[in-house]
Write a structure and sequence with these properties.
About 95% of the residues lie in helices and about 0% in strands. The protein has about 130 residues and is mainly α.
Length: about 130
């Protein structure tokens, strides 16, 4: 055999080892650079949810803008204003009633606490007076 055959015979294992190592490094490098299908599905799902929320917010803003422009073009009538004011007054009256009931409950609790404090003061004063007599 010739000299080239000897080089191939002895160099072939080294060449295949180096080539296998380079293929392994290249596959690891490519694997780290690109996302897997599972990761892509997760990111795509998160993107769809975020886009859906954004679209809902945009639609809500568009509806509000349309209402505002409609109110600017056609101001509400006196009857509509009276209806709105009556609903606001009903809400305020329910809040006032709730506040009154809460304040009565707080007053009762405060009265009971002040009675307990007065009893404790009387008891301590009696103990101090008995101690002073001895």
């Amino acid at each position: 055999m010739g000299i080239w055959a000897d080089y191939i015979k002895y160099g072939w294992p080294i060449l295949t080892g180096v080539a296998a190592f380079m293929v392994m490094v290249a596959s690891l490098l490519l694997n780290s650079r690109f996302v897997t299908r599972a990761e892509h599905k997760l990111h795509a799902e998160a993107d769809r949810e975020r886009d859906a929320k954004r679209d809902e917010a945009i639609e809500a803003h568009d509806r509000e803008i349309k209402l505002l422009t409609q109110h600017l073009k056609e101001p509400p009538t006196r009857h509509e204003l009276d209806e709105r004011l009556s609903t606001v007054l009903q809400r305020l009256s329910s809040v006032e009633a709730e506040m009154r009931s809460n304040s009565l409950r707080i007053d009762r609790e405060f009265d009971s606490l002040s009675k307990q404090l007065g009893t404790l003061n009387d008891y301590l004063q009696a103990i101090i007076e008995q101690g002073m007599r001895r």
